[in-house]
Amino acid sequence: MLRKLYIQNYAIIDEITIDFSSQLNIITGETGAGKSILMGALSLILGERADSSVLVNTEKKCFIEGVFAVEGKKSVLRFLEEQDLDTDAELVLRREIAVNGKSRAFINDTPATLQQLKTLASLLVDLHQQFDTLEIGDEDFQREVMDALAGNDAKLAAYKIVYQEWQQCEKQLAKLKEEKASFTREADYNQFLFDELSALDLKENELEQLEEELQLLSHSEGIKTALTKTYFELKESEQPLINHLKQLINQLQPFTEIHAELAQLTERLQSTHIELQDIAGELNRVGENVQFDDSRNEWINQRLAEGYKLVKKHSVKDTAGLLAIQAELQLKLDAVLNIDEAIQEKEQLSAGLQASASKAAAAISAARQQQAKPLEERVNALLHQVGMPNARLRVSITTRPLQSDGMDSIEFLFDANRSNRFEPIRKVASGGELSRLMLCIKSLVAQSIDLPTMIFDEIDTGISGEAAKQVGLIMKDLAASRQIICITHQPQIAGKANAHFFVYKEIRDEMVKTNIRQLDQDERITAIARMLSGEKPTAAALENAREMIMN
């Protein structure tokens, strides 16, 4: 609810603060006193675009702030969380218009866009002004009304789960069909690529190992010559290095017991002698195995040429890359074989979910249909009470393909003059008719829908007497569980107020200014009496006003 509205330097308002009641707030005042200016200021914090022309005093900025109580308002708190805004029990919306005409918006002191402000405001305030395009003409609201009356909350929640599962299944099915089409287009080419790689039949690291073997074959003659020469020098020359070393050891051996250090040096020479003998044997073995094989060399070159041709073709670097491509192609070819089965399974699942969703939607639709006639009758009766005896509402419910809210297209049709020509409300109803129609409808669903603060501007246009009294009674009843703010010229409506505010003009510093104050009991009686009989109320008017307030 709107707890407080603060306005500074807006049009002919210097500075005012209004503390609203949580129930029925009535605003009255002479024509031209500035009631519409109040609504204009309020509309700014509800997200309407600013006009720098409202700055009468161009030396300071315009400042409008609304303080709302939002405790328990789940939709509001959810919006604040989604937008990463503070979620206190109190919410402050603010608009500032600088002297240069630039406008800024704030939500809980955090800069916000106009769209954020407008979206949030729609959850807080339901503003009904003449000639507005009201939400009553919106199909979502009309459906919400029908569901509230039908008690469809649980049915809708269950339906939406099945519907979402069906939609997800349909997306998956469409993706599978796209994949199949893609696979089919690519299948022949993928099979060609796979066969090409399969024919090569590469082993892990094969190209890299063949490169190493090719290097060995290319240098086999030089390697064999080096091995043979080294072995020859160690064991088979005229003075083999190993034999010569043995002779040196034998020369030192007799003196090892005489000189302490010779024993250690001799042992080291013996170890070297043994190591050289082992090396000579290894050189001989390796040399015997090094052979130049022309046919092997040719085969490796051919194998590498085929391998590197595919490496270049597939833009990979090595054998592992080619094997990965081959495995991927295998998966794609397997997928072609498996996807038909997957599509068939998904189609069966989708058909089952659609059937479940259709059944749930039919139950929701039946409940809506059941409430259509009673709603028409009750609204039409209320319309008669509020001064629209010839107006009639008709609820049109037609079937359409399943959507997230069911299978129904719902539209409220209106006939203002018993012409039997029912047209969509948004096309034929006037501003005053729309406001009273909305009041009638919302009074019927108030206990079922979490309605925001409702503001009615000039709802009493074209009515008086008993019709105005009935509007006041409906508002009073509606305000028992939610806040209502109403600007009115009708004493019958003003008499129902929990808080009565009076808008007036005054001369201040030789300038006309708009101000507002809350009336006490005696002031209310006088104000209503003036609404009944003029500037100087008669005793009868005062008594009548007192009776309106007391009743």
TrEMBL record:
Coiled-coil segments: 159-220
Keywords: ATP-binding, Coiled coil, DNA damage, DNA repair, Nucleotide-binding
GO molecular function, one term: ATP binding
Pfam families: SMC_N (PF02463)
Protein's GO biological process: DNA recombination; DNA repair; SOS response
Keyword Metal-binding assigned: no
CDD domains associated with the record: ABC_RecN
Keyword Nucleotide-binding recorded: yes
Task performed by this protein: May be involved in recombinational repair of damaged DNA.
PANTHER family: DNA REPAIR PROTEIN RECN
Designated name of the protein: DNA repair protein RecN
Organism, scientific name: Sediminibacterium ginsengisoli
